[in-house]
Amino acid sequence: MNNVEILNFVQNASKEQLTALGTLGAWMQEKVPVYCTCPSKCNQKCQLAKELNEALALAGERLQAQ
C-alpha cells in the first residue's frame, strides 16, 4: 500500500474505521516516545512511518469534523 492508497482509504473510511484509526493514532502518539528509543529514529526518518502518521492524523481530523 502506498501513500495515495493509505490516504484514499482514510478519505473513504466509515465512522467506525475512523474511530479505530483515531484510537490507533492516539495510542501511537502516547507510546512512540516510550518505545521508540533507538538512535536510528526510524519513526521520524522512515517514509512509510511518516505516511502512516499523516494518515492517522487525517483520520483524527475527519473524526473531529464530524
Largest sheet: none
Structural class: mainly alpha
The amount of helix comes to over 70%
| Terminal residue distance | 26 Å
Rg, Cα atoms, Å: 12 Å
The number of helical segments is 4
Q: What average pLDDT do the residues reach? A: 86
Fraction in beta strands: under 5%
**Which regions are unreliable across 5 or more consecutive residues at pLDDT < 50?**
none
The ordered string of helix (H) and strand (E) elements is HHHH
Structure description:
With 66 residues, the chain is mostly helical. It has a domain at 39-66. It is built from four helices and no strands. It has helices spanning 3-11, 15-35, 42-45, 47-65. Helix 1 (3-11) packs parallel to helix 4 and helix 2 (15-35) packs across helix 4 (47-65). The longest helix has 21 residues, at 15-35. The chain is flat, with a radius of gyration of 12 Å.
Task: Please specify the SSE layout and strand pairing.
Elements: H1 3-11, H2 15-35, H3 42-45, H4 47-65
Helix pairs in contact: 1-4, 2-4
List keywords for this structure.
66 residues, mainly alpha, 4 helices, flat
What does this entry show, briefly?
With 66 residues, the chain is mainly α.
